[in-house]
TrEMBL record:
Pfam families: UDPG_MGDP_dh, UDPG_MGDP_dh_C, UDPG_MGDP_dh_N. It is an enzyme of class 1 (oxidoreductase). Residues 313-414 form the UDP-glucose/GDP-mannose dehydrogenase C-terminal domain. It comes from Candidatus Sherwoodlollariibacterium unditelluris. The lineage of its organism: Bacteria, Pseudomonadati, Candidatus Omnitrophota, Candidatus Sherwoodlollariibacterium. The active site is at C260. Keywords: NAD, Oxidoreductase. Belongs to the UDP-glucose/GDP-mannose dehydrogenase family. It comes from the Bacteria. This is UDP-glucose 6-dehydrogenase. One of its GO terms (molecular function) is UDP-glucose 6-dehydrogenase activity.
Amino acid sequence: MDIAIIGSGYVGLVTGACLAKLGNKVICVDNDSGKVSALKRGQIPIYEPGLKELIKGNVKNKRLSFSTSIKDAVKASEVIFIAVGTPDSGNGEADLTGIEHVAADIAINLKSYRLIVEKSTVPVETGEWVKRTITTHIKGKAAFDVASNPEFLREGSAINDFMHPDRIVIGVESKRARDLLLKLYRPLHAPIVVTNIKSAELIKHASNAFLATKISFINAVSRICDIAEADVREVARGMGLDKRIGQGFLNAGIGYGGSCFPKDLEALVSIADKMGYDFKLLKEVKKINEGQKDAIVDKIKGSLWIIKGKTIGILGLAFKPDTDDIRNSPALDLIRLLQREGANIKAYDPKGMVKARGILKKVTFCRDPYLVCRGSDCLFIATEWNEFKELNLLKVKKLLKRPLIIDGRNIYEPEKMRKLGFRYISVGRKDIC
Ligand code: UDX
């Protein structure tokens, strides 16, 4: 099929490259001409395992191209995905300006039937507005359909998530739209949930809000474990083996971050508010997430006593492993909280340092984890990169001023740390003092 993807950010690029891999002819469009030129030269603006190779291969065999022209893309494609950003507008609501502009631009260029698909995460009822916008701006009599096809991919495993989804959701209002999307996704052999547009929009927000709720739940349980000296990982395993609960997203830590959960949760609270429902549960989920960072600072204070003037080594800046994304990273929030207490910060992340340098002030960025340890008063694990799980801990111990590790991601075994002679403080597990 001939496909256009408007918006070459995270979701747009991964979707475009994967649909090309499935044998479609895809044009990825972006209004940032610098980004489009870079993509044409093979430079990928984000780090995502496997994406560079996938893009390169599909550009080479002419199934994937890049453009700044919505006009050309609309002309060439039967199905047009809108994958532009929907950032927080500052009051919790999603900013849909980009969606409106793109919908109007598509409308102006519509000459014959096109299926316009919302891929960006949008509040319920956006589909209605997209339809109205297209109807307002359309010049001729071309028929069109609007559909919703939310994306559930996770950064760091986006290509695998796209190619092997648990489910595909399509919200449609006509047989033609339904058939086109079923045909497009047939090669993935995944369960396809066909709904109306509003339900599809809500499935995305509700899924992300539910996953965030699971994380806050286990983080709240970790606080009880801290006091009761129970082990949160054992509690999570015992809970998660119940199929009704499931094992995923029960890792206690420093709280969720990233470009989706915080924003989508806010957006759902805000839509609910607008509709007259006070979604108190989700407000509490957010509060627990914020509180988790304060709890971590308290743990650091509890083990260092005075933070002012001490050097804290931080391993991990990205909001999760296998990405260079630092948007809403709890690691960055923690660094700021510690700096406010007067700490000196040394930090390392395998992929996140380039972006972090542009944002963090007064941080010493190090070339490797061991340089972070050298002369630091303690080591704090903020992101669970595999590289950190495989550190030479005896070397770490020698380099640190004192053998103190505060592990915000529970990546080490407390018993092993005790044997190695560390003071080891983790989340929801007995401290090794
Ligand atoms: C999420 C959704 O998973 C995905 O379906 C959607 O399309 C986009 O948002 P992503 O933001 O890439 O994906 O990352 P995810 O793996 O879901 O993690 C989000 C945050 O939750 C990270 O900060 C992560 O560290 C945290 N997390 C995740 C936990 O703290 N504990 C867990 O058990 C799982």
